[in-house]
Structure formats: structure tokens, C-alpha cells
Design goal:
With 229 residues, the chain is α/β, with parallel strands linked by helices. The protein has eleven helices and six strands.
């Protein structure tokens, strides 16, 4: 059956951490590392985090701050009292504003291309209750049809009940829905268990053996979805 509805993860797909802010917070506490070095280390750190054992033993909030320590590790920055203090400062900012506040240049044209092809778009994110405000701040809200924040909905990926909840809310059929995410054991496993077609956004090509469709960018997504139909 043709794909009609596209679920999109937020963090790592539509928005990324503000590495300039992260670098500045670290500098305030005596830790020198550039935003570019942090951004370059991020895909490898995320891959290290993305194991079935880790996902099953943690919730999204716990994984989020392990993730930042892994990014520092991959960037060659030793963990210290300074990195702990900087991450605590960033955590406080994140609770109020959301530190995943930068949007790749490809996002707006990619969403426009998907809509031009007639796909209905819903954001399905593990978040902390700030996602709606963040999307309004970035002028992203009007580019999608629905936004779901796990903190508000009472489920989080990879729980297939979260996907089913969103399917019910938007009136979509799993057989005609695809979900695009950047973590295999959160997004691919969760979507597949809900009967949804999973697509892995693998920007750094770190999942060559993944048993699901992969794209290196959102620009590739519209063409892939046409093939999947």
C-alpha cells in the first residue's frame, strides 16, 4: 500500500543540539572544545548509545545526558568537574527551552518537498514537554500537520503504544505510514513493532548492515518514500 503518512523524529532529524551553546557552557567551566569538534563527534557518540541493552535499561532522559558525555569522549575531552558543571547548566536550560534548538538547512525544503508530494507529516518525539514551544520558536510548527511530545502523551519510543497512540490521533493506518528516526533501537525497532515502515536517517553512514531502508539526508527521503510505495 502506498505511504500516505510520515512520522518524523525531532532530535537528530529535524533539530540538533546547539553545539555553539554547548561549547560556550564548557568554556565557562574551563573546558575548551569547539562547536565543530562536538558536532563532528556526535554521530559516533550516538551510535555508541544506540544499543538494545542501553535502550531497554534506560529512559530517554537518562540516555540524553549519557549522550553528552559520550560526545565529549568522542571529541577527546576528558570528563571532569568542569564538564559536569557545564552539563548541569545546559540541563537547566534544556528543561526550560530545549537545547536541541538548531535546525539543519535542509529541513525546510525537505518538509516542503514531502508536503508537495501529498504526505501528511507528524512529529513523533521523545521530548521533555518543551517541543511545542521549541517548534513555535523555530517557526517549524506550520511545516508539519501534528506534533507529539512524549512528555505530554505519556509514552516514549520505542514503546509501540506511543506509535499506536499517534496513529489513532491522526487517523493513520500503520500499513500506509513510515517513521523516520536516527536511532535504530528507538525508532526502527519501535516503529516496526507497531507495524509501521521504519526509515533510518544515517547521516554518517554508521549503520551499513541495518535491516531497514536508510537515507543519508532528508533530501533523499521524498524519493525513497516514492520507491517504498
Amino acid at each position: 500500500m502506498p505511504i500516505q503518512t510520515v512520522f518524523l523524529d525531532a532530535g537528530g532529524v529535524l533539530v540538533n543540539p546547539n553545539w555553539v551553546r554547548v561549547s560556550a557552557a564548557l568554556a565557562e567551566h574551563g573546558v575548551a572544545v569547539s562547536a565543530a569538534a562536538l558536532a563532528g563527534a556526535e554521530p559516533r557518540a550516538k551510535k555508541r548509545l544506540d544499543t538494545g541493552e542501553t535502550i531497554q535499561a534506560t529512559n530517554d532522559a537518562q540516555r540524553g545526558w549519557t549522550y553528552f558525555n559520550l560526545v565529549l569522549n568522542e571529541a577527546g575531552v576528558p570528563l571532569s568537574a568542569g564538564t559536569d558543571a557545564a552539563l548541569a547548566q545546559l540541563h537547566a536550560y534544556h528543561r526550560e527551552f530545549n537545547v536541541w534548538e538548531t535546525m539543519p538547512d535542509e529541513v525546510r525544503p525537505a518538509l516542503a518537498a514531502l508536503r508537495a508530494r501529498g504526505f501528511r507529516l507528524a512529529v513523533v518525539s521523545n521530548a521533555n514537554g518543551t517541543l511545542h514551544r521549541l517548534f513555535a520558536r523555530l517557526a517549524l510548527t506550520e511545516l508539519v500537520d501534528a506534533i507529539f511530545d512524549s512528555c505530554d502523551e505519556g509514552f516514549e519510543k520505542p514503546d509501540p503504544r506511543y506509535f499506536q497512540h499517534v496513529l489513532d490521533r491522526v487517523g493513520a493506518d500503520p500499513a500506509t505510514t513510515a517513521h523516520v528516526g536516527d536511532l535504530f533501537h528507538v525508532d526502527v525497532v519501535g516503529a516496526r513493532n507497531a507495524g509501521i515502515t521504519p526509515v533510518l536517517l544515517d547521516v554518517a553512514d554508521l549503520y551499513p548492515d541495518a535491516d531497514c531502508p536508510r537515507v543519508r539526508s532528508l533530501a533523499e527521503l521524498a524519493e525513497l518514500l516514492v520507491v517504498l510505495t
